[in-house]
Amino acid sequence: MRDERDLRDETGDGGDDPLIGSIARELRRPVRLDPSLDARVMAEILGSASRAEPAAEPATEPARVLAHPVRRGPWRWLVEPKTVRISPLFGLAMAAGFAAIMVLGTRRGGDDVVQYPFGPPPSSDARPIGNPQPGTGSTQQYTHFVFVAPTAKSVALVGDFNDWKVNETPLQPVQNKQGVWSVSVPLPPGRYTYTFVVDGNTWVADPSAPPALEDDFGTPKSVVTVGGSHT
Amino acid sequence: MSDAALVGQVLAGDSEAFAGLVARYRDRLGRYAMRMLGSREDAEEVVQDTFVRAYRSLARCDDPERFGSWLFTILVNRCRTSGARSTRRGKTFVHDEALALGAAEDAAADRIAWREEIDRALERLDPDQREAFLLKHVEDLSYEEMSEMTGVGVSALKMRVKRACDRLREMLQEVYSA
């Protein structure tokens, strides 16, 4: 808040100008926003809360956090997100490299494979990929599931393919990507319903996948289709 | 319930507690966004975006006691981004605001006219000057607070406020004196 020093020290910044005062008084009058704004905000928040934990996105671009520094433990710098600056050329090279990996990782004649050459969707992703161990000679097709949950202690995949057993297909934390979990599952061609289970008890549908129409128990589910001769 | 308590509740998993923070700060955020952007539609979009971003990054609020300032910092930056994308459009205030205050018709008409002049003048300020003027004279922040919020040095902010005031005097003194 303004203090007396500001008023004494400043010249010409309008502190004691009646015109500026009049302008400021008018501008301080309340404005009328759409009464549904609060509801829209909460709808978006609660919708995202059911998909992932809060504190997953940066607040500002660039980030400017107004706070007096709060001393925390010595490990804070390890877990605190850092800003990494890369040149546009390097970014393009990374994207090209990732695209190359995606192309090389697909099955031959891969018109039945979904590719994301510029990185996975924001929160999760279920996509069929080729054999994750190229060179083995196997024609087994794996589907790669990715889920973002920064504060989760465990994430599991349940679906038609594992009888909805929570302990059957756990996701593993992705190295060097805090909060990102993934698993690759061998799935023959077909249509599968699935969902993620966070911390053993919270069922979260894949926000980037089509929702399953059937919902016997009111739990959120998604659908993935693995291409092939059966689709 | 204090901001810190509400923030604590949200971080503990009670997302609906965030509604209390929305209700508490919506008007102030809306007022600044409206004055800065000049469009109710843009202001509502930015305010909604600000709250959602604040929720999603709530764990990064280092001092929940000062949640309001932290939230406002997000808003200021969102307004900058929004303002850079679109030009100000249309009139910003609603004819019935003055009437809603119960003013007599003549006084309401005078107030509306004065507000139109202010709005036009504000629109003609450089965005940096408009931002600095609003933070200083409407939001009543100290220069130190403004500096923390915007990343701009105190001296530069003082100069922006001074220039904004000079410009507003040029544009409005005659109308004000009439």
Overview of the structural elements:
The complex is a heterodimer of chains A (231) and B (178). Chain A has 5 helices and 8 strands; from the N terminus they run αααααββββββββ. In chain A, strand 4 and strand 5 form a beta hairpin. The longest helix of chain A has 18 residues. The N terminus of chain A is likely disordered. Chain B is an all-alpha fold and 178 residues long. Chain B has 9 helices and no strands. The relative contact order of chain B is 0.11. Classes of the chains: A alpha+beta (231), B mainly alpha (178).
Oligomer: heterodimer
User: What is the CA–CA distance across the termini of chain B?
Assistant: 47 Å
How many beta-strand runs of chain A? Answer: 8
Main beta-sheet strand count, sense and barrel state of chain B: none
- Tell me the structural class of chain B: mainly alpha
Task: Annotate the secondary structure layout.
The complex is a heterodimer of chains A (231) and B (178).
Chain A: H1 4-9, H2 18-27, H3 37-49, H4 76-79, H5 88-105, E1 124-129, E2 142-148, E3 155-159, E4 172-173, E5 180-186, E6 190-198, E7 202-204, E8 222-226
Antiparallel strand pairs in A: 1-2, 2-5, 3-6, 4-5, 6-7, 6-8
Chain B: H1 3-11, H2 18-37, H3 40-56, H4 67-85, H5 96-100, H6 105-124, H7 127-138, H8 143-150, H9 154-177
Helix pairs in contact in B: 2-3, 2-4, 3-4, 6-9, 7-9
Quickly list its features.
heterodimer, A: 231 residues, alpha+beta, four-stranded antiparallel beta sheet, 5 helices, elongated, disordered N terminus, B: mainly alpha
Quick overview:
The complex is a heterodimer of chains A (231) and B (178). Chain A is an alpha+beta fold and 231 residues long. Chain A has helices at residues 4-9, 18-27, 37-49, 76-79, 88-105; strands at 124-129, 142-148, 155-159, 172-173, 180-186, 190-198, 202-204, 222-226.
